[in-house]
Design a protein that fits this description.
LOG_fam; alpha/beta; two-stranded antiparallel sheet; Cytokinin riboside 5'-monophosphate phosphoribohydrolase LOGL10; seven-stranded parallel beta sheet; Rossmann fold; single chain; 305 residues
């Protein structure tokens, strides 16, 4: 393959002629000066595949549906309807790969149970395995409501269809579109009344978790969440899991890409469950033993079908 390139000493050309061939020489035309550079690039021959060939075999999404924004709109509306039925509450973001044998699973189970009891709220997650399952199981143990937004194309076992091993189908929604799922997870923590107690709980996780964490952080930074009624955002730094990330964000302050103490103002870093529970107790002015809701207006948004 051959191509032309301008020499560093060549002045700006009034016109450029580019020719591709299997030869090793292409000339650059200029009204001022001509130079010839020779390159020998041995590039592999690429075999392009259609986009459908990259889909999982279990994938049920018809990509033609993506051409209509109405499909996404319908799914977002379904997310909002589910939130209206179950009520807003604590949203958990975390790894789907840390199973019951992992120490962070045990800690998340305990945290999910105690936050659900303390705030007397619905527990929301991606309704998947791992730490999402731990928070769900903890809330169920506390006898509180649980809701979720699954994604139809998620790595792991609970993936291919509208399936969950123990939750009733009316308590979660399997989304085809990530945008709809994110709308649901965000709306589930937006407080529209002072009586609503919500929280974002960021547990240890990978790429998907970090994607959700930084999106919500940006929404709080831009005052799209909590502009009128603040929402607590807890970063669970179990076993120093996020310490390197926190150091990077401190470096961002040095580079000037974030303001001094700006990141610290957006969330509360908690090293253990006790710190998280103490923060939420103080944030909402609760007694550590308070588990009930005394606000009659809260039942309007939280009534079950």
């Amino acid at each position: 393959m051959g191509f032309a390139a301008a020499s560093p000493s060549t002045s700006m050309a009034s016109h450029v002629f580019l020719r591709s061939s299997h030869q090793k020489e292409v000339m650059l035309g200029s009204s001022l000066r001509k130079e010839t550079w020779r390159f020998n690039l041995n590039l592999p021959k690429l075999n392009y595949q259609s986009r459908n060939s990259f889909c999982c075999k279990n994938e049920s999404i018809d990509f033609e549906e993506r051409t209509s924004p109405n499909e996404v709109k319908k799914e977002i509306e379904q997310c909002y309807e589910l939130i209206h039925r179950l009520g807003r509450g604590a949203v958990y973001l975390g790894s789907s790969r840390m199973g019951p044998e992992h120490p962070h699973y045990v800690k998340t189970f305990e945290l999910g149970s105690k936050i659900a009891a303390l705030l007397d709220c619905t527990t929301w997650s991606g309704a998947g395995p791992g730490l999402m399952d731990a928070a769900t199981q903890g809330a169920l143990q506390a006898g509180k409501r649980v809701g979720g937004f699954k994604i139809g194309r998620e790595a792991g076992e609970w993936t291919a269809s509208n399936f969950h091993p123990y939750l009733p189908s009316e308590s979660y929604l399997t989304c085809r579109f990530f945008s709809a799922r994110k709308h649901g997870l965000v709306d589930a923590v937006v407080r529209c009344k002072s009586s609503e107690r919500t929280a974002v709980v960021a547990l240890p996780g990978g790429i998907g978790t970090l994607d959700e964490v930084f999106e919500i952080m940006a929404l709080i930074q831009l005052e799209r969440i909590g502009s009128q009624l603040p929402v607590p955002f807890l970063l669970m730094n179990y076993d120093s899991f996020y310490s390197n990330l926190l150091e990077f964000l401190n470096d961002c302050e040095k580079w000037g890409t974030v303001s001094k103490n700006e990141v610290a103002s957006l969330w509360k870093v908690c090293n253990n469950n006790s710190e998280a529970l103490a923060y939420l107790t103080e944030f909402y002015g609760l007694s550590p033993v308070e588990t009930g809701r005394k606000d009659s207006e809260s039942s309007e948004c939280r009534s079950l079908p």
